[in-house]
Hints:
The chain has 18 helices and 18 strands. It is an alpha+beta fold.
Amino acid sequence: xxRLKSTAQVSRGGNEVFGGIVNGGHQGPPSxxxxxxxxxxxxxxxxxxxxxxxxxxxxxxxxxEEEFExxxxxxxxxxxxxxxxxxxxxxxxxxxCDRITVQGPGPGExxxxxxxxxxxxxxxxxxxxxxxxLAGDNALDVFQKHREKELKERxxxxxxxxxxxxxxxxxxxxxxxxxxxxxxFQEEKRLDFEWTQKAGALExxxxxxxxxxxxxxxxEDFDHIFxxxxxxxxxxxxxxxQEDEFFGYQFLNGANPMLLRRSTALPPRxxxxxxxxxxxxxxxxxxxxxxxxxxxxxxxxxxxxxVIQGEKQYLAAPLVxxxxxxxxxxLPMVIQLQPPSPSSPTPPLFLPSDPPLAWLxxxxxxxxxxxxxxxxxxxxxxxxxxxEVIAVATMRCLPGLHPVFxxxxxxxxxxxxxxTRARTQLISDGGVFDKAVSTGGGGHVHLxxxxxxxxxxxxxxxxxxxxxxxxxxxxxxxxxxxxLRLWDIxxxxxxxxxxxxxxxxxxxxxxxxLQAWCREITEVxxxxxQDRGFPVSFQSQNQLCHFLTMCVFxxxxxxxxxxxxxxxxxxxxxxxxxxxxxxxxxxxITWHLGRRQPDMVPLGHHKEKYFSxxxxxxxxxxxxxxxxxxxxxxxxxNEQLDLPYEYLKPSLTxxxxxx
Length: 659
C-alpha cells in the first residue's frame, strides 16, 4: 500500500516499455516506460524467456535512467519478480536493460532486479529479485519454477558444437551473427574491432608500397616497416632482441613464460658429441647448483609445416639450456634445434661462442617456435577455448539466481564472440594462420590436439604450475611473482563470495546445479578430462574456491632450420625470416590483437551489479582494494627496473577474454 518508484537503466532503441511488479506470481498495475539504447541481444538467456532474434540496429545512444512512480492500493509484501516487455511498433529496434530498482514507500525498502539483456519483439522478461539463491527442494516455490524454466530454455539456446575432433567443444555458431544476442559485442566494441582491421590493412598496404623500391637483405631493413602502431615495449624489443641477456629474460618475463623449467637432470634428447666434455662439465655443475634451466619445444616435433603461396615453410622443435649467472641473469648455454632422429642421431649444437650469425639464427628459430606454442597452446587453447567451455557450461547449467552465475558473468563477457570470430577469420581454412604462419594449413590443429592431450588442471593454476616447474623464488621472475600475488588476491575474493552462500562442505555437495556445471565442464566441454585432474564434482568449499579462482585467472620461417654452423651468412638469416609482405601482415595482426581495447574493463571493475547482497558488494570492494595495493607494489618495483614488467598489472588485466 503506497507509492512505488521504479528506476530502469536502459540503453539503445526507442518505443515503449511495459512493466509490472509481481508478488507471489500476481501482476500489479501495468506502467508504460519510455526507453533508450546499447547493443544486440534478446533470447533472454539470463532470464529464461526466449524471443525473436534482434533486427539490425544502426543507431546508438548512451545509457540512460528512467524513473516511474506507481500508486499501489494494496500491500504487495516482499517483491519477487518484475515482468518487462517492450511495446511493439513499426520499427522494432532492440534495447538493452541493465537493471530495474524499485523503491517502496518505506525507508530502505528497495529491491533490485538485474537484467543485462536485450529486449525486443513480443516476449516478456520475467526478472527475479536479485538476491542469490541456491536450488531448493520445493517444487511449488516460484523461484524454483523460474530457474527450472530458465535452464530448459537456455539448453535450447546455448548448444555445444565440435569445431575439430580432439579439441574442447565450442558454442554452436557458424559465425558471430548466429550467437545468442546477449553474448554479442556491444556496438562500441564491434565498431572498433572492425575499424582497426581496416586500419591495419591500410597500414600494411602503405608499408608494402613504401618498401617496393627498398632493399630487403639486411636485418636493418626491417626498420622500413617498423613505424605506425607500436609501443614503448616493442621499441625496447627491437633494440635488444639480439642480446643473450634479453633472450633469456624473455623465457621468464616475455610473452610466453609458461615453458621454462628448472632442470632436475640433463634431458635425454641432449646428445653431446665427443669434444664437448667441457660443455658437459659446465652443464653438470649448473645442475648441481640448481641454476640450470631448460625450455623444450618437443611438442612441435613432426608437426606438418604450412605451404604459403606455393612456398614450403619449416618448423623446428628446439631445446634450450640456460643458466642463472652470479648477477641473477638467465643466459643461454646451448641450443639444439631438432631432436635426434635416425637421419640425424647427433644433431648440431649451437653455442654462444659460435660465429655470431650462426648463433643469432639459432636463437631466431627458438623465438619462432616460442611464437607457435604461445599462440596455439598457451593462448588459444589454455585461455580462449577453456574460457569458452566455462562460459557455455555456465549458461547451460547455472540459472541467473545462482551465486556462481552472478559471480562468473562479468568474467565471460565477449568470450563467445571473440572465439567465434577467431574460428572464422584467424584459424579457419584460408584464415590468417594459413596465410602467414608456419603452423597454418592444418599443422595448428595437429599441435592443438597434442597440447589438449597434455592439458592438466594443475597447469592452469599458477601455484601448482610454478612449483612443478621449479620456478618459485627464481631471481628476476616477475611473471611468477605477479601471478602468485594476483592468484592469492583473487582466491581471497572467491573465498569471501563462496562462504556467503555455502556454509559447509555438505552444502557444496548438495547443490545439484553446481555439480551439473562441474560435470558439464569436465566431461562434456573438455571431453572427459578427469584423467588429467579436472574435477567431475565438488566435495568441499576449498575445492570449489580453487576451481573458481582458476576460472577467473584463466585470457613464418621460409628456409629449413640450419643443420650446420658453417657458412651461415646474412643471406641465410634473411632467407629464414619472413619476406616484407608476410612481415607486414604479422605486425598488423599482432598489433590488432595485442593492443589495449577502448572498452577494456580492468579486473574486478565491471559495472554489472548481479548481486544484491551487501556482503557480496563488500567482497568486491575489498577485491578492488587488494588489486589497488598490488598495482602500487608493481609500480614501485617497476621504477627500479630497466624494463618494467606490466603484463599482470591489475589495471592492464582484462576482466574477461575479449580479444
